[in-house]
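Entry 14. Structure prediction run on the chain below.
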Amino acid sequence: MSLSKTEEQLMKHLWELEPCFMKDLLEALPEPKPAKTTVATLLKRMINKDIIGYQMMGNSRQYFAKVSKEAYFGPQVRGLITDFFSDSPTAFASLFTADADLSRGQLEELQQMINDQIKSKK
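Output returned:
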């Protein structure tokens, strides 16, 4: 499952707002805002890709994600690790933590997530 850059941008707003109507998405998009017809075309393509769905509310469609953000980006991150980091999550994490300029609090939060994962593997 892959989305174009524009579809990903729209999807980001849909994940934040869902469920939502097209007018909600249009309001959330940054300037310069795309035409309503452009957004309608993107939504139709994403429905055809089975990434989103909708429910009729009167004459309007209320859109919702059929794929979570984690389910969409997880395989992409794994592909990135495989393709660019020689299939080494440690090399990826090393680059991420060294170059991301994370605060002490953010690093501690990451450390807690890792500790939680270690405990769940026992």
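The chain has a mean pLDDT of 89.
Filed with the rest of this week's runs.
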